User: Which sequence fits this backbone?
């Protein structure tokens, strides 16, 4: 029982970040129908940029966050404008290859600037230490991380719900043509989606950097989050959150209970085997829409 | 894929066999034969460094042709092609090391094992497509890499394995690089010829039918489940052979050699070369591997510029430059090099009348 | 009767020095004709009590339909009546919730689409569904797929027999191209053809499958008068020369009245009429459903 609870807490902690990253995929997918693999690269860029501001330049935390978000927005605008907009109407392979290319491009940039060394924020970001609650010992960074993830997601969802722009974005989610006819600037919405998504991704990157260390390998989390997005059904925020948390928990359980049977590092294996299972059993995920093809 | 119409004005087919030829004019056939003979001949002129590059070109041309079959012809997306190439290498090594097979017997197996695994991972493709398939193949990549990394008793884990070239056959010593190059070139020519045949016969047309309109294909009598799985199977067969002959050159294989990044470049440079033609596949492979060579060449320069910390520069160079190339080509010329080549050829075909 | 058909066939053969002869040979080869007299009485397709609905919308309810050998049946009905859905059920693309489809007394309700096509139920589509990257001739040869007799290994190695088979298939396909008068565009990628020509290429691909039954979904929609006449001529020729039954969905009543042997009328998923053109034009229910208010006045 104790073990179980501990595992669940651990799983939720990593699951929260998967959920956040999954949401960043969903933001773009819902409005542009493009799956932005590049967000895995944004995690790395976010973590390193934040580290640069916070640790190297010793800037105050708020300014560092603002700079990181600003850079994320700038990158988002460039990606959208330069590489995604010309692809509208191209077959599905084109955006897949381009976003994967952008992912590796961002990785290359990070490598160029930061030489691939693993860094840490130390005490500068979230407080270190552990809380003891009964038999549970909760690392503070993970608790704060989880709370921040959920706050960001809540903020985002309420933005969609209660603002005018959010309303416009929801119309775009439903149908591009209808939105266009209603006088909504669909291209502008695409741009907003990229900006939001990249902002969410860099926040994810900062939190991951705090927990796992700032390094190039953070993009693996972006890939794991793909399993979550798919499980949630690709275009549902709620689905992405639930699935993200579920993947976190499944991963921890698998490591604890199957770790003895399966040799080696299975953190990557588990989510992807799970992904294959979803594809075989329920390809459109928990909350996805089944698209009927007609002749 | 469409019948080759590039021939001088006024050339027409007088029978159906002629319409089915790969080369529609004797001149083109002659040029191609001359080119292949040249490829063989240069083995005796060039030094080992160039030979090593040519071997890599050949191996990756085979692999890229495999991906062309999966993606360019059958329209299925594979993000695990490098991993299947790795399976080919490891199959070769495992059969040689544990079961004592020689190169010649292990070579077909190095194609068949990835083929079977590829067909297994192709099974989800029967129900899903596009993005979902990209995810499935991504998963395939990680599962394969995990298996190779951790099935230590068979694959030596991260230590890598040794494999062997064929020994002396008919008085030819394949341990000498130029003779091994001739072997690899022969395999490449044969595999590419087979792929060309595939593309102009029954299954090749079924692939394109599935790519262009899979639901219509099913209603028009093509078993698309069968076709898709076969596309993955054949493509992975090619990947396996590519890995086996490529690994044979180094006589060593390591799981680090086929990362997700490589799988992505496979797909990216396939598009750079041009989807849906064998020429495009070869062009993509050659461009990719030339850039690889370039990025190792610039390492000393960057080292001179940046001092001792330049170890990352070559890796960063390849990541940034390659992705820029892939993105620029996709944005500006989605039909790739092949399209440019066709335009050049067409201007010849229409000579002397421009219209 | 038997002598009659032979005569027609002869005449056609004389009229066109080229045409569908190769294809007809393929079809006749496998057709069992125990008794020429009974030929036109034979029932080739039977649709029984087909019901299918899409989320509450009844696209077809309890539709029955029979098709006799050598018959040209037109299905008419207003937009959204369920005509295309009926063809989709017959060709196995939609699975009906209730009812069965029989082809020459074999129950094919649960067969997969490609199997049904292989058996000879071939069709064209309302929204053209060609293989856009292939040329006209390759589209037609791709239609030959189930009838090409070598496996992919033979194709890859390109053995002489595979080569010979390819040439034979190409001959049949060229025959179809000639018949459809598409020689000029045979090597053009279909994506670049005009709408009318694409419809024609689709007809060619359906023919390549050696149809026992040809299902045509609005073959003349969106065409000008000349093109319509061409297609009508092709349909009549196919019908008489290959002696196969044809089911045709068509909105142009003029053409339907002219060439159809029998007409079935669908409205809101219900079959409201079935009979010869004269019977249908007199049927009050049909007239009011099809022409709406105008018909009642
Ligand atoms: N896959 C599907 N999903 C949902 N509804 C469908 C589907 N296919 C058909 N329908 C509905 O079934 C009804 C009948 O459609 P169908 O295409 O058969 O009409 P039709 O008679 O061919 O009309 P038209 O003359 O416009 O071609 C329509 O209301 C259509 O919206
Ligand atoms: Mg219709």
Assistant:
């Amino acid at each position: 029982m104790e073990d179980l609870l501990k595992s669940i807490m651990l799983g939720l902690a990593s699951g929260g970040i998967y959920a956040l990253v999954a949401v960043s995929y969903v933001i773009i997918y819902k409005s542009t129908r493009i799956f932005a693999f590049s967000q895995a690269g944004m995690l790395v860029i976010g973590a390193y940029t934040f580290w640069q501001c916070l640790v190297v330049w010793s800037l105050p935390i708020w300014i560092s966050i603002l700079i990181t978000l600003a850079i994320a927005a700038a990158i988002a605008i460039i990606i959208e404008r330069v590489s995604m907009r010309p692809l509208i109407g191209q077959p599905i392979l084109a955006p897949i290859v381009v976003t994967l290319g952008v992912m590796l491009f961002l990785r290359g940039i990070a490598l160029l600037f930061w030489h691939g060394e693993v860094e840490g924020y130390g005490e500068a970001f979230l407080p270190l230490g552990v809380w003891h609650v009964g038999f549970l010992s909760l690392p503070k960074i993970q608790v704060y991380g989880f709370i921040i993830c959920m706050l960001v997601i809540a903020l985002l969802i309420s933005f969609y719900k209660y603002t005018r722009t959010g309303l416009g974005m929801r119309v775009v989610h439903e149908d591009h043509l209808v939105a266009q006819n209603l006088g909504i600037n669909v291209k502008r919405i695409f741009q907003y989606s990229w900006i939001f998504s990249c902002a969410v991704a860099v926040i994810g990157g900062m939190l991951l950097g705090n927990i796992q260390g700032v390094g190039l390998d953070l993009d693996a989390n972006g890939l794991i989050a793909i399993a979550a997005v798919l499980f949630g059904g690709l275009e549902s925020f709620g689905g992405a959150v639930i699935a993200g948390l579920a993947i976190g928990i499944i991963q921890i359980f698998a490591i604890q209970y199957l770790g003895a049977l399966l040799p080696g590092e299975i953190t990557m294996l588990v989510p992807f085997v799970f992904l294959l299972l979803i594809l075989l059993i329920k390809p459109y995920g928990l909350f996805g829409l089944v698209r009927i093809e007609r002749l | 894929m469409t019948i080759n119409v590039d021939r001088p004005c006024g050339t027409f087919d007088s029978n159906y066999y002629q319409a089915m030829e790969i080369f529609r004019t004797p001149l083109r056939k002659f040029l191609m034969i001359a080119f292949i003979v040249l490829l063989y001949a240069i083995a005796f002129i060039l030094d080992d460094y160039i030979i090593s590059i040519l071997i890599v070109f050949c191996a990756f041309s085979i692999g890229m042709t495999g991906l062309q079959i999966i993606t360019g012809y059958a329209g299925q997306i594979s993000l695990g092609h490098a991993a299947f190439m790795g399976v080919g290498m490891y199959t070769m090594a495992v059969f040689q090391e544990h079961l004592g097979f020689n190169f010649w017997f292990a070579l077909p197996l190095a194609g068949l094992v990835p083929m079977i695994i590829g067909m297994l991972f192709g099974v989800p493709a029967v129900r899903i497509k596009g993005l979902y398939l990209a995810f499935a193949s991504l998963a395939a990549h990680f599962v394969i890499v995990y298996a190779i990394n951790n099935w230590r008793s068979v694959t030596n884990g991260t230590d890598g394995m040794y494999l062997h070239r064929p020994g002396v056959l008919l008085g030819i010593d394949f341990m000498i690089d130029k003779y091994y190059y001739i072997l690899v070139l022969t395999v490449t020519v044969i595999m590419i010829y087979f792929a060309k045949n595939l593309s102009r016969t029954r299954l090749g047309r079924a692939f394109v039918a599935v790519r262009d309109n899979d639901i219509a294909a099913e209603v028009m009598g093509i078993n698309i489940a069968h076709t898709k799985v076969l596309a993955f199977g054949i493509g992975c067969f090619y990947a396996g052979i590519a890995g086996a002959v490529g690994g044979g050159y180094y006589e060593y294989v390591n799981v680090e050699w086929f990362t997700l990044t490589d799988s992505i470049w496979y797909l990216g440079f396939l598009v750079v070369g041009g989807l849906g033609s064998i020429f495009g596949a070869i062009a993509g492979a050659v461009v990719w591997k030339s850039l690889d060579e370039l990025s190792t060449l610039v390492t000393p320069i960057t080292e001179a510029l940046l001092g001792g910390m330049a170890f990352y520069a070559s890796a960063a160079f390849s990541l940034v430059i390659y992705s820029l190339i892939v993105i620029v080509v996709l944005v500006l010329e989605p039909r790739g090099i092949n399209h440019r080549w066709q335009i050049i050829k067409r201007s010849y075909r229409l000579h002397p009348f421009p219209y | 009767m038997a002598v009659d058909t032979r005569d027609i066939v002869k005449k056609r053969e004389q009229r066109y020095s080229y045409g569908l002869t190769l294809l007809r040979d393929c079809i006749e080869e496998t057709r069992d004709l125990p008794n020429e007299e009974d030929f036109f009485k034979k029932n080739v397709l039977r649709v029984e009590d087909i019901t299918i609905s899409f989320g509450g919308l009844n696209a077809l309810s309890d539709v029955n339909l029979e098709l006799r050998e050598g018959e040209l049946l037109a299905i008419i009905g207003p937009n959204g009546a369920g005509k295309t859905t009926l063809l989709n059920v017959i060709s196995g693309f939609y699975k009906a919730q209730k009812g069965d489809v029989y082809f020459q007394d074999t129950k094919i309700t649960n067969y997969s689409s490609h199997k049904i096509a292989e058996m000879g139920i071939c069709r064209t589509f309302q929204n053209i569904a060609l293989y856009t990257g292939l040329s006209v001739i390759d589209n037609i040869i791709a239609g030959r797929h189930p009838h090409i007799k070598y496996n992919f290994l033979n194709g890859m190695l390109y053995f002489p027999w595979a080569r010979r088979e390819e040439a034979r298939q190409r001959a049949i396909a060229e025959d179809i191209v000639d018949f459809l008068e598409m020689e000029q565009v045979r090597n053009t990628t279909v994506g670049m053809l005009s709408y009318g020509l694409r419809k024609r290429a689709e007809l060619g691909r359906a023919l390549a499958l050696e149809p026992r039954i040809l299902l045509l979904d609005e073959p003349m929609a969106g065409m000008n008068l000349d093109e319509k006449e061409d297609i009508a001529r092709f349909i009549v020729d196919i019908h008489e020369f290959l002696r196969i039954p044809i089911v045709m969905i068509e909105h142009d009543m003029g053409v339907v009245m002219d060439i159809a042997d029998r007409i079935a009328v669908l409205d809101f998923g219900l079959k409201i009429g079935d009979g010869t053109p004269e019977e249908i034009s007199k049927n009050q229910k049909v007239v009011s459903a099809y022409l709406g208010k105008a018909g009642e006045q």
Notes: The pocket of adenosine-5'-triphosphate (ligand 1) is lined by residues A 292, 294; C 54, 57, 59, 77, 79-85, 126 (CB under 6 Å). The beta strands of chain B are 161-162, 168-169, 172-173, 252-253.
